[in-house]
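Quick question, first post here. What does this chain look like in 3D?
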Amino acid sequence: MMNSKTWLIALLLSLSFSALAIDLGEAKTKGWVGEQTNGLLGVVSHQSEVQQLVEQINQKRIEKYRQIALENGLDAKQVAILAGKKAIERSETGAYIQSPSGEWLKKP
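> Answer (accepted):
Ran it through. Tokens below.
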């Protein structure tokens, strides 16, 4: 049976892990992630903090691109590139976006 000290440590650890979780909006605002030309998110900085988030979102995006491509008789890569263009266009001023040459730039 766990004593009260062990319970307190477990509670604090669970709260600290929750506090470390970052959402996409916050990661973009902090400049840790950006929109890439291939329709996927990319890690700009703080890889250890955002890598899992980026992987989860990119997996969902890839699945959606495949679904859209299948429904419309297109190649998933075409859909992803178009989605990337739209995501870059919709990105807020100051957010990181990928240039056609692959470098990270702050959107003017």
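Confidence is low (pLDDT under 50) at residues 10-20.
The first strand starts at residue 33 and ends at 35.
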